[in-house]
Design brief:
46% of the residues lie in helices and 16% in strands. With 253 residues, it is of the alpha/beta class. The mean pLDDT is 95.
Length: 253
Amino acid sequence: MKHSTALSVNLNKIALIRNSREGNFPDVAEHGKICLNFGADGLTVHPRPDQRHIRPHDVIDIAELLKDYPDREFNIEGNPFAESINHFPGFLSLVRSSLPDQCTLVPDNNQQLTSDQGFDLRISGEKLKPIINELHDLGIRVSLFMDPDKDQISMAKEIGADRIELYTGPYAAAYKNADQGESIFLKYLDAAIHAQKIGIGLNAGHDLNLQNLANFRRVPELLEVSIGHALTVEAISMGLEKTITQYIDLCRA
């Protein structure tokens, strides 16, 4: 029997639409509530210093919202080294004030359009250790954004991460090419099996959609997928309830 996978809806694109106009429409927290009521297992946000989408008050609003949903999870992802600038209080400050269930640490920077690679823990592992320890002291599960590299995944375990989130961009890009897609998928499968063997939990995210998710769920013990961009786009044509229902069906299949 295949392990059930949790669906965490990333709200960044909803915030991006809101930020294109004055005011608070669409309301990001209210949209998150609708997703939860349609069955999503949790909500994800990725606040950045430039506040291009999620803003600090969104993080607090969603943390408050999820108090009414004790069986769902709040996942905050972002660069743990992002410091206070202008009206951005710093990534870790936001995490401390909102106390999510999970914090996914991502090695992005202010110039990146989106996250496009995992950590190289040979470079950043020692700097991440005290951050991971602090998050654990706050009762927060820690996941690291990683490429499907077994040596790097082993280092993630060694420095104390509870989970990894496999960066699935390359898988999604290659998916439509049967030969290349399967070859790249096998790298993810190998990485997932290795994670299972060493006892580190497995999440995945980036460019997963209704077309490629079922195939990716061939990896063992996939605990959670975080999906925002594709889900938002698909909901435009299909409707939000139908889109979330189809994702949940794929995650429970």
